[in-house]
Design a protein that fits this description.
The protein is an alpha+beta fold and about 70 residues long. About 55% of the residues lie in helices and about 10% in strands. It has a two-stranded antiparallel ribbon with strand order 1-2.
């Protein structure tokens, strides 16, 4: 798998939080943003960097949820 350099920060963050899904009786419902935000703060990211990464993470989160909720 190839990750473009400009997408690497979001890919790396998503990799770190890949086990931090909120779940309900119907399965995963979204990422735990408390964990996502805490990790970004610990990494020393600026507010602008955090907001940019959150936009990217939300796109990845929605794509992952679509895949997880597909019926086979």
């Amino acid at each position: 798998m190839e990750v473009w350099p400009d997408c690497w920060p979001a890919f790396e963050l998503m990799s770190y939080v890949r086990t931090q899904w909120r779940t309900s009786m119907s399965g995963p419902s979204g990422l735990d943003y408390g964990v996502v935000l805490q990790l970004m703060e610990k990494r020393g990211l600026t507010v602008d960097e955090q907001l940019s990464l959150l936009d990217d993470i939300r796109v990845m989160e929605l794509a992952a949820l679509d895949e997880m909720h597909k019926k086979f």
